[in-house]
Amino acid sequence: MKRILVTGSNGQIGAELVPYLRERYGAENVLATARRRVPGPVSEGGPFEILEVRDGRAFSGLMGSFGVDAVIHLAGVLSARAEADPQGSWDVNAGGCFAALECARERGAAFFFPSSIAAFGPSTPPDGTPQVTIQRPTTIYGVAKVTGELLCDYYHLKYGLDTRGLRFPGLISYEAPPGGGTTDYAVHIYYEAVSQGRYTSYIAPGTFMDMMYMPDALEAVVRLMEAEPSKLVHRNAYNVSAMSFEPGQVAASIRKRIPSFEIDYAVDPVRQAIAASWPRSLDCSAARAEWGFAPKYDLDAMTTDMLEKIQKRGPTAGSGLHF
Ligand code: SER
Q1: Beta carbon of 7 within 6 Å of any ligand 1 atom
Q2: Is residue 116 domain-resident?
Q3: Looking at 43-52, 65-74, 263-272, 309-318, which range is the least confident one?
Q4: How many independent structural domains does the chain possess?
């Protein structure tokens, strides 16, 4: 990767990946794009353009004028929000992926697609979920993720495009809040631990999902994109996860630093049903073997870092987090 275009740059991943890529590849070589300009490092720390991902003509124009050789396609609507608008979210998530792949094909650019644990469903083996297994998701978000994986495979087979992808678990971060996801409780809980000393979880106790701290996710993207192509047997997309936990375990981890922290539950049936349809723990051996996936943060290390960072930024930084 030398000249990189990122879509969805204001999102939870983009807000951290763009500065990370600029640091590594040079600020002038990373073109951040998003539907709107938000003041801050993404729009001010290097090149930035407004881009609606389904606008192929504009997308293609930017690819040409910037001389893009790699597209990191992050724009998308998360799982719970997508269930509230299946048609609109399909258009963005599947239509956007197709439009972005077409632009990458025109220029022979490498392509990164963020798939998800949502690409699995209730018929998938939930424990030690294999790299290659049943994928019959029951959410529109998951259906679009499987579609994206298959499209990326197709563009690689048919056109030799260098497509690569990760099946991200829930990502936890403090820079930009996620919006409308199912795993987001694991972000909200840290903000509310700092601001309220308590948290009401919309996910039921005992519901395990895969998770990863953002610094490990950023490193995984770059490691995968820089990996020797001949080693990549499973391009689209690799299972990656650093931990699997349920809400009570995050609460216990927080209590080690904030002993008075309390959790209670008001389960949201929509997000609980989505969570229940996803795996409890992924088998990430293909990612480790083929390109050296090696996450560093476990639950306690992440909790320490999250609480420190949120305390430093002030308790109101996470306001507006709730979907
Ligand atoms: N974190 C995402 C969500 O909850 C899953 O990819 O929607």
Answers
A1: no
A2: yes
A3: 309-318
A4: 2
